[in-house]
Amino acid sequence: MMHGGHWRIYARADGDKPANISWTLLRRVLGYARPYRRQIIGMLLAILTSTGLGLLTPLIFRDLIDNTLPNRDLARLNLLALGLVLIPVVNGVIGIVQRKLNANIGEGVIYDLRVSLFGHLQRMSLRFFTNTKIGELMSRLNNDVVGAQRAISNTIVDIITNLVQSVAMLAVMFSLEWRLTAIGMAVLPLFFFAVRRLGNQLRRIARESMEHNAQMNAMMNETLNISGALLVKLFGRRGTEVERFDQRAARVRDIGVTRAVIGSQLFTVIGLVGVVGTALVYWLGGHLVLAGVFTIGTIVAFSAYLGQLYGALQSLANAPVDFATSMVSFERVFEVIDLPVEIDDKPDAICLGTVEGELTFEHVTFAYEVDEENLLSQVDRPWQIDAIRTVLSGDDGQRGDDDRHKQPEQSTEAIEEPRTDSQARESALYDLSFKIDPGQLVALVGPSGAGKTTLTYLIPRLYDPTEGRITLDGHDLRDVSLDSLVAQIGMVTQETHLFHDTIRTNLLYAKLNATQADIEAACKAANIHDFIVDLPAGYDTVAGERGYRLSGGEKQRIAIARVILKDPRVLVLDEATSHLDSQSEALIQDALKTVMVGRTSIVIAHRLSTILAADLILVIDRGQIVERGKHDDLLALGGMYAQLYETQFSRGIGGGS
Asked: What is the domain partition of the chain in residue ranges?
């Protein structure tokens, strides 16, 4: 059914929400198949050839029964027998060629989609990743891309094959005997009714089965990992969890039995409809044979065609649902590819060469605003359960959308003004203005949540200011190409991340062409070389998932070595020494003094030694600079810095001296 240029096809397993498939979507899908048009033409020729050969077998049987055997024609018998052998052999070879072409098309499309999708995701801003579930991204890259591949390599191919076979067989059947064709087609309404009625019911039950399986698997994942198992034992809930699991497993068992029964009913009904059609053909055909209208061989050939026709029509009956379901995967992939890139190069972006390192903030305001249009939508995929809202409380997703999205009722009481010691606010940063001269060390201090880390994220353009601008050597960062900007900035973030690879590979991430001597020099400067060489595999030791095989201090020293290897002009350290013991910190501080020479350095400082060495201290509170100056001057003010000094730095909290 078409409505305003859209095909309205019921793609959902529950059958209550139609999927709109537009010509625009189809043209875009076909655009990904266009590079493989030669293979597609070859595959279509293979389908036509295979279908034509399949039509010959019933005709051979007709000739065998009507002519060869009655006439005792041995030569013709040998020829027909050879034909019965050759047709399957040739069809098998064609099937192999068709499968190879099909695989080339499908795997080629999945490759193109994955690379395009991954490349686009790499261009997305940090805001996108902080507001998107990693599981949803993995579903787009894996499940949806595979679903899109299935649309081209399986669903569309099956539809074309079944259409060609149905048309060809109907043409041959009408040419053989139109009356038998008519009576064979008379049972089709019953056939389509059975497929639609029981098929929809089977899809609904299949979805329920997946939901129950997902609930059971989610519970196993939650309670059988080390943390979950420890919690169960500490609270003595072993019996409770076994009972909960028993209930979920029972649902899976019961729905599995129901699914098997409904599936058996569907195939039984379809088989009975086919039997009725075949019986009617033999009944009417028998009368016509006795009346001398046509031969016995015609009935045999016709019955063979009828069986193939019913099989093709059965597949076509499910084609609209399968096709629309596959198109949903394309829609999900295109949704990601179409997301606008928030932070990108201007067409005439400046490519930075060697920079001096003068950094200026001019009335910079920033808020973590989220534009829903730039984020991924929540997906309800047919035949796939992506997320479980609750694991233990028994929420099986039965609540309606209204309940799911209902907001808490607003209190009628007056809302209290935020406390002065609270960091909760609308804007993360507000009207920041300061200048850092080349080679200066600036220390950022302030309470947790004051906006120090956010400030550092603006320097490499992980975010852009909501208002104001930031310049490097007088160039607005938004006018500079991202690659040339990032090449000038080295950053050690608050949470050190190492890839599940060797220490050497993690270090080379900063400078792909670095020599072993470069690597060792950087590690010596970060006071981590001796530790690495003492490991069994040295620099080839695998760091483990997220670097879990290393301690926090060891990971941070490797991160510092990685930045040293990059040799940036602007250095940003976000609590870079917060996990180090006193001895390691002292060596790191000496190394950093050497590294920072000639570089603009911004350090979120938790150590008194760093603060004392700073050319400028910026005290951040609730997103604003409340004090600035050197250590002695700020102490004399008796303000927030003096309070922080009394409560943290002077007492050596966090390792400060």
From this structure: 33-174+323-342, 178-293, 429-655
